[in-house]
């Protein structure tokens, strides 16, 4: 759903289940975050989330793997590890069973990569394919990441480049270069697990989210409001997938990007040097995007070392900083 519509739908429900009635519900509807978190005991809290969507690529295996990585990303955004997942599927009755098998295989192998298992699921018949997961994870109650608790002086760290929405929209318009699409698919299939583990390893990190449908600026605004501070981004430091500026110059953006901009543009200021298409890339609706974290500057070297030691040499970019104030400002 578009952010404005979702906010309207959820507002009347936010106080139905709150911490006053359920003290073990550490994260629920009363605060906008990536997952629900329920404390079991002094050392364990359950993380629960779900996500599914229609195909954004043509290959069924890649579609399943991307959908699974995207669903599990919310667990990593909360600082946890995946325990198990349940398939959520809606497929046309006319779809070849072998295609459905490939979708499910892509999701299953990505869950295995995360160290979890597929423990069941539910499917229905629908005219348009849909696939995703309901994911259960585990985290120590004192090591939960939330969207709040960013503090002035923190550095803003991003762990994947932007431009997924533009690339997948170019695919729908038959305008994407094969190499650009391949790089985007690899990016979407990459788990945020190593990035989360590096953040947990260095400690002192409390404010994290993942960049998905609301784009970098939409999700950053959620962190800003939860933390009571202001984010400064430097556009030249923000990584973009190869080919993205070419498609942006043709104004190839998904509808979700325009929805994101309309909903929150009054809370973001841009320096005049940035073109409209450059601004739009920061609203670009991502699928299985990276983590955005507020990192104390004294922990930057430790984080860099932890990323270098991780599997596949986890990349990251310093894209801005946290300051006093409110809203977001984007510099050139």
Write a compact overview of the structure shown.
This protein is α+β, with helices and mostly antiparallel strands.
Structure description:
- The chain is 36% helix and 23% strand.
- The strands form 2 sheets. It has a 7-stranded mixed β-sheet with strand order 8-11-7-12-9-13-10, with helices on both faces. Strands 1-2-3-6-4-5 form a 6-stranded mixed β-sheet, with helices on one face.
- It is built from 11 helices and 13 strands.
- It is globular and about 55 Å long.
- The protein folds into 2 domains: 3-143, 2-Layer Sandwich (60s Ribosomal Protein L30, Chain: A); 155-331, Phosphoribosyl-aminoimidazole Synthetase, Chain A, domain 2 (Alpha-Beta Complex).
- The chain has 332 residues and is an alpha+beta fold.
- The protein starts with a helix and ends with a strand.
- Strand 2 (36-39) and strand 3 (45-53) form a beta hairpin.
- It has helices at 3-10, 60-77, 97-113, 164-172, 178-189, 193-202, 215-227, 244-249, 255-264, 276-283, 300-309; strands at 25-27, 36-39, 45-53, 81-91, 117-125, 130-139, 155-158, 207-210, 230-234, 268-270, 291-295, 317-323, 328-331.
